[in-house]
Amino acid sequence: MAKVAFVFPGQGSQQVGMGKAVHDETAVGRAVFEAADRALSEPLSRLCFEGPADQLQLTANSQPAILTTSVALLRALDARCDVAAGHSLGEYGAHIAAETLAFEDAVRLVRRRGQLMQEAVPVGVGAMAAVLGGEVAAIERACAETEGVVEPVNYNCPGQLVIAGEKGAVERASARIQAEGGKVKALPVSAPFHSSLMKPAEERFAPYLNEAKFQDPKVPVYVNVDAAPVTTGAAARDALIRQVSRSVRWEQTIVRMLEDGVGLFVEIGAGKALTGMIKRIAKDALRANVETPADLAAAREAIQKARG
Hints:
The chain contains 14 helices and ten strands. The protein is α/β, with parallel strands linked by helices. The strands form two sheets. Strands 8-7-2-1-9-10 form a six-stranded mixed sheet, sandwiched between helices. The radius of gyration is 18 Å and the shape is globular. The N and C termini lie close together (6 Å).
């Protein structure tokens, strides 16, 4: 019997209209959005459903919006997983699936996380770029040998690695990578997420995580920083603190989950970014996607089939 993993997307999956169908068509989905509005003391649901897009794109808004949409769909799916993981911000969704964190606490935490990450580096000082193709070792070497702060921050899947750091350093490393045959695309983000420039945000965010109530996860949660499972609340909290200024090791996480017996990955939330990455990491791995209520029946069927 194969294990079923629920995986949750991170920042970048936001879009106006996200979560509206699950809010309108399911009582549990509506309850999640209402809980988020109460927890934040503002109409996050209206921002998700109606925009404006420029406000939804702001880190402090997009992070709670993505999490809320994922949790609404998770509640509507009404199925259990054997393990869970999330890409960056998505790790909070994984911990809600594992019952490590209460949703209201998590949505307040990610609002604060987004604010502090944005404040850590002034707009225009940092940058991020996606490197498509090229050898990982060569990209790491280009970053290490470039003057200034530039680091690999997202190991997404074969042929897709994201670098981040000081704007000038990212540009210099990008030029070298391109000269060596790689393709580089600047990303339209407002801060160099998961780079060491985020250390001030990590230090300011740690007290909020330390004050939050963490339970031991009901199922193992595979964390970004170690590409390994955590099974205690203390380890979960520690990994979320360290995650802010360290690389997202997504490819390594999926490989480890496969080694540990996962046979089906169910992406829960806006977009299909993780499903695409998993296909590139392990083309034979079974995948399902829950983005609207129309996807629920097929996902439940896939889960039942995986469990034999």
